[in-house]
Amino acid sequence: MAFAGVKPAVFDNKRTSSFEQKRRLPSRLYSTTTTTTTTTSGQGFAPAVVVVKDEKEEESLSSGQVKERLLDLLPRMRGEAEEFRQVESYVNLLEADYEPALTLDFFNLAMGGEWQLLFSTNLSGSVQKIRLRELIQRIDPKQLDGTITNIATWDLSEGEGGVFDVTGTFSVKCDYEIEQGSRMKVELKDHLLEPARGSKIPQDVQGLVGLLHRAMPTELFDPNDVNIDTTYLDADLKIVRLTGSRYEGIRNIFIRRNSVQINPTSNETK
Fold it and tell me: Is residue 34 scored above 50 in pLDDT?
């Protein structure tokens, strides 16, 4: 069951590594075990202002230690401003020490595979009647181009009592080209809605697509002509910044699927 693409937008070529956009609270946090929402959404972080309990201690941390603290914090976020500032601080530190891949082959090797969305700065609060269990981004590189597929696993409650008895996947299929170093220019190709085997068929397909549009970060639902700059990338963590008039400054944080154990109940301060 396929759906037509959306109207493209015109994007500029501005590129920057700073956090330029007006700060608002984080919108949603995804993991295999927890989902956290807030009541507001925003595009990107504010200008880099590091707010930490011990600035000197934080600046002395290695990239590995910063990454560990970031992955410990993200699944436990409750949408508080201090948590958002801490994420901003950790991202700034990782990006400051990041050295991009020197060759296209190495970049493609590191980028390829399935990535699970952990954090987005661009999503409003929770949506009734639908829940997203997982958001995966599958990247298949082919030298200077490739494909990106954003896959949302969803559960839908259509009847009374709040029972989620309809389930399936929603795939956003795209092509991309590499330009300006490692920038990925994305072109939307198709939307595909697939009920899971054995699931009931949705009664209102268009209504379901509308709920998915509201529940997903819009840059993953409608990525036509999006420009993606990779600002940090290692074997199991990816941070990207979007550019363009619609999504300028939005940040997404991914982990490689099944590579990192996420513990949303941890109360330890590392």
Answer: no
- For residue 238, give the nearest of 174, 184, 159 by alpha carbon: 184
DSSP state of 9: -
Give the number of other Cβ atoms within 10 Å of residue 196's Cβ. Answer: 13
Nearest Cα residue to 268 out of 68, 55, 100, 45:
68
What separation in angstroms does the CA of 7 have from each of 4, 10, 154, 189, 212?
Answer: 10, 10, 25, 11, 18
Please give the DSSP secondary-structure letter assigned to residue 53: S
| pTM of the full structure | 0.78
Find out whether 62 and 69 touch, Cβ atoms under 8 Å. Answer: no
Split at pLDDT 50, 70, 90, the class of 48 is very low
Diameter over CA atoms, the chain: 57
Buried b (16+ CB within 10 A) or exposed e, 200-228: eebeeeeebbebbeebbbbbbbbbbbbbb
Cα–Cα distances (Å) from 215 to 74, 92, 129, 222, in that order, read 19, 27, 10, 12
